[in-house]
Amino acid sequence: MPIFKTQTEITSLQEWERLAGPKRPDQWDDGRSAKEAARAWLQGGGIELPAEVSAALGAHPAFGAVRSWEAEPEAKLRFDKFAGEPRNSDLAVYAEDAHGPYLMAVEAKADEPFSETTGDTLVAALERYLENERSNGVVRVQQLSQALLGRRQPGDPKIKELRYQLLTACAGALCEAERRGYSRALLLIHEFRSDKTSDENHERNAADLGRFLQRLSHGEITTVGPGEICGPFTVPGVPLLSGPVQLFVGKVSRNLRRSGT
To answer: CB under 8 Å, gap of 24 or more: what pairs does 49-53 form?
Structure first.
């Protein structure tokens, strides 16, 4: 059963919505990321990957044709030991190719932002700590920055400018890959352009992703286009990881606009 939730196979949009749909019913809508991601991943009958995903994997030397895979929508990928809700990945795909097994953490995006900036997240966490000294938000931001980014190099974007969701998404993928004994983790942004999305918002997301890659690579990579996978990136790891896991970041896009532009 390639796509499952709570050991139940998902074969239809109705089952996906019931078992792993968004918390708000209005988010399950044609042209928006939750429903379109479900549609894209179910399109191959739960056997074939979306065509744009297969093409991107085949174009990178560290990946190749997928021999087997299974996936879980709304997968909880914990990256630290603090209490609270774990990191939710829109889709966690456990795949195997000629190089061995790997984890693909899929983040579906129409034109929603990658959450708030890390700077805003840290300020909010500090406010919570001042109200309750048992709050771990500040330490969480610190550990994520230390494990993924390390010391800032000249010309690197500042941590406060980066979108927090990109840090937690990478950390969740890396830590889950390590738990499973995998040597590769891929964060894949699955973008959906529809008549309900804005080009301006798509450009903002592309800029935010590029800024994150610039900091991750210390200026070697500043953008990733549709159909591309970047990496591997070497991250400090400590204190969230105990061993080396290669990190890759990619993006694929599906155009759903009636005009085709």
So the answer is: 50/190, 50/252, 50/254, 52/226, 52/227, 52/252, 52/253, 52/254, 53/188, 53/190, 53/252
State the burial class of residue 62 (Cβ atoms within 10 Å of its Cβ: 0-12, 13-18, 19+): middle
Question: Which residue is listed with tokens 């592309």?
Answer: 206
Rg of the chain over Cα atoms, rounded to whole angstroms, equals 18
Residues 6 or more apart whose Cβ sits within 8 Å of residue 261? 255
- Going by C-alpha positions, the residue among 54, 52, 47 that lies closest to residue 9 is 47
Flag whether 11 is in a domain.
yes
The answer to whether 198 and 215 have CB atoms below 8 angstroms apart is no
Alpha helix ranges (H) inside 76-198: 118-131, 137-148, 164-179
CB 225 within 8 A of CB 165: no
The pTM score is: 0.96
* Tens digit of each residue's pLDDT (9 = 90 or more) over 124-136: 999 999 999 999 9
Give the pairing of strands 228-233 and 87-97: unpaired
Residue 249 in domain = yes
CA atoms within 13 A on the CB side of 81: 3
Q: What's the domain count of the chain?
A: 1
Domain membership of residue 261 (yes or no) is no
CA dist 170 and 162 (Å) reads 13
> Do the beta carbons of residue 31 and residue 192 sit within 8 Å?
yes
CA of 210: how far to CAs of 79, 146, 233, 250, in Å?
A: 23, 20, 14, 11
CB atoms within 10 A of CB 110: 24
Domain coverage including residue 53: 4-255
Mean pLDDT of the chain: 95
